[in-house]
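#onboarding

Welcome to the new folks! Below is a worked example of what a typical request in this channel looks like: someone posts a single protein sequence, and someone else replies with the predicted structure as tokens. Don't worry about understanding the tokens yet, we'll cover that in week two.

Example request:
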Amino acid sequence: MSTLPKIAWIGLGIMGSPMAENLIKAGYAVTGYTLEQDKLERLAHNGGTAAGSIAEAVKDADVVITMVPASPQVEAIAYGPEGIVENAKSGALLIDMSSITPQTSIDLAKAAGEKGLRVLDAPVSGGEAGAIEAVLSIMVGGHQADFDAARPILQALGKTIVLCGPHGAGQTVKAANQLIVAVNIQACAEAVVFLEKSGVDLAAALDVLGGGLAGSTVLARKAENFKNRDFKPGFRIDLHHKDMGIVTDAARTVGAALPVGTLVASLVASLRAQGDGGLDHSALLRGVERLSGHTTES
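Example response:
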């Protein structure tokens, strides 16, 4: 019989499904709950157990992991008579891997702590590919002892795993990550349109740029999206719009100026307003094309 902790996984979306499956591959017993029946069937097909409710999923779990879109969803699954806080057993470890506001994480840690639960905020970076390949970067906020307990589990999900400070610190670092990623994608998108309007071979140009100082994980991961105009969502514009709201609000609170970040946040919002919210964030290219009068849209 396995001595590994029993895990409940709440939220089986683009990121959550492959992450839960990686834990199953690592030998963990995973019971999952999500709103989409097909995702529950996928979990069961891959060796997990589908639960009919949050309460059912978490009641016997040693560790509860959540991966949902934003703060309102975290609050919806955490609180209330059917939520995690009321139904998880005392002493269980709650690891929230959603990307939410730092204050939401701080409030959750306090409320769960009053019920005897330990809490970590542990948002991730790396997108769908990183989730599938288990090479995510995981930025964690919480107590050292809880981080140490969670480390073996997190090592089945990611490659770079760092305790960044107290509760909320993981979310603050994730907000900074999303700022850097958005600005980087926007710069790459502008370069792509500039190169194409100049008549340069785009594939050759991106290859050489990727080998120099302009190279980045963003360019490496998104080059094919740019070349093929393939904007199937790995990380949706809608979610990056949410994250840019988090970082701009947090920066305003602490008095940090984000002159470039604020501009890019408005470009992300504009793309969303034009109906592209469901596309991958590499679709920022579409916004640059529209501004440049250069479009490959049908």
